[in-house]
Design a protein that fits this description.
Helix content is 50%, strand content 15%. It starts with 6 loop residues before the first helix and ends with a helix. The protein is α+β, with helices and mostly antiparallel strands. Bound molecules: flavin-adenine dinucleotide (FAD). The site of flavin-adenine dinucleotide has 20 residues, from strand 1, strand 3 and helix 12.
Length: 388
């Protein structure tokens, strides 16, 4: 067990920061479709997309821990840059790499690594949030050439900037998780449409997706059923990527708070002189390091593979709470400035706040941790089935 980052890992982090300062910073404030496409292109040139994707598809071939270190660094620079690094590495594309056909890997993983397009993930539905296996969106084969989807998803991220959504859907009608598979739906497929998107606390749009006899070529079927467990195993890497983003936002807030405490003067002295603030900063440092250790453990144990579900849940529960507290304390240390939109603290708080909800809420992750420690399945459906 080694708790030190290697020299190579430190270099990777520094290099990512250097790329950001030199070529990405000036592009990162343009969040239009064209602006994001330009940023993606620059990140592809710098080798910052597809961090853990194999080199044969144009990725950087990094192990999961190194991937997270780069995502965390880029997220600390600017959330949109962290988001693109995460989505092209630990995002939906991971499922295509793990579970796709050679043709799907070559086309989709290659395209994502080259910055040509992005892939969203559509799991959540109006009646299937935490209870994801209650999803109703249905796919049926239409001859050998096509599948036809009907249903609706909601709260899907980044749809306006991506060209495809990996859509979880049912291929059978048993109502059981065994029906669930996934289709890579092109956003220009006939019968596909999406809402304008609702704006969340962090100023990002979350979209409703509508599938009305949506016709998709059969070669875009990732798995036609019996796949929920495999999809969720890959999704654990996605969860770690978004935990790294929370770490990046918390780290940026912490660094801002330290700098501000040394610069802001009240009562004729730096506010860093006050022990009340020193203890806040010490607590923030402890939480940041503890959250990093749990996250890095889960990633390090995965190597180039998939992380353990229980280690991811533990990292997620702790980091979501720690990051929220770190960002909140950083805002407090900035006084009224921290509360103003001109300063980035409120934005950083909003970024990490979503982490307690997406990728499985912290309550759902605690259910899984408790299930493991009590050695019981902890199936949340049992009571409903009995009552029925
Ligand atoms: C910023 C953001 C981005 C997102 N991006 C995507 C995306 O790209 N694709 C996608 O498919 N979805 C996305 N989501 C949706 C997200 O996955 C869901 O919000 C999440 O699964 C929770 O579902 P819900 O909101 O319906 O809450 P609900 O499931 O209705 O839960 C409501 C509350 O009840 C609690 N609860 C529910 N069941 C239990 C239980 N058994 N035990 C204890 N507590 C329970 C929950 O913890 C929560 O506090 C995103 C959400 C956010 C906030």
């Amino acid at each position: 067990m080694d708790f030190q980052l290697t020299e190579r890992q430190r270099e990777l982090i520094d290099l990512a920061g250097e790329h950001y300062r030199r070529s990405l910073k000036q592009l990162a404030s343009d969040h239009t479709r064209e602006g994001i496409a330009r940023l993606r292109g620059k990140m592809a040139e710098a080798g910052l997309l597809g961090l853990n994707m194999p080199e044969e598809y144009g990725g950087a071939g990094l192990p999961l821990l190194d991937t997270l270190l780069v995502i965390q660094k880029l997220q600390s620079c600017a959330s949109i840059v962290g988001a693109l690094a995460h989505r092209s590495s630990t995002g939906a594309i991971g499922a295509i790499l793990e579970l796709g056909t050679p043709e799907q890997k070559s086309f989709f993983v290659g395209g994502v690594c080259r910055g040509e397009f992005g892939v969203s993930i559509g799991i959540t539905e109006p009646e299937a949030g935490s209870a994801a296996t209650a999803m109703k969106t249905a796919a049926r084969r239409d001859g050998n050439d096509a599948v036809v989807l009907n249903g609706k998803k909601q709260f899907v991220s980044f749809v306006d900037h991506n060209s495809y959504t990996l859509t979880y859907c049912r291929f059978g009608s048993t109502g059981k998780p065994a029906d669930i598979g996934a289709v890579i739906v092109p956003h220009d497929a006939p019968g596909f449409s999406h809402s304008q998107g609702g704006i969340n606390m962090a100023d990002e749009r979350l979209f409703e997706l509508f599938f009305d006899d949506c016709r998709v070529p059969a070669q875009n079927v990732l798995l036609d059923g019996n796949a929920f467990g495999r999809l969720i195993s890959v999704y654990n890497a996605e969860r770690l990527g978004s935990i790294a983003r929370m770490l990046g936002s918390a780290q940026a807030s912490f660094e801002l708070a330290v700098a501000y405490a040394k610069e802001r003067r009240q009562f004729g002295r730096e506010i860093a002189d006050f022990q009340g603030l020193q203890w806040m900063l010490a607590d923030m440092k402890v939480k940041l390091e503890a959250a990093q250790l749990l996250t890095y453990r889960a990633a390090s144990n995965a190597g180039h593979g998939l992380p353990s579900r229980s280690e991811v849940s533990i990292a997620k529960v702790y980091t979501a709470q720690a990051a929220r507290e770190i960002c909140d304390d950083a805002l407090q240390i900035h006084g009224a400035n921290g509360y103003m939109k001109e300063f980035p603290l409120a934005q950083r708080y909003a970024e990490v706040r979503g982490g307690s909800i997406y990728g499985g809420t912290i309550q759902i992750h605690k259910n899984m941790i408790a299930g493991d420690l009590l050695e019981r399945s902890n199936n949340q459906w049992k009571r409903a089935e009995k009552a029925g």
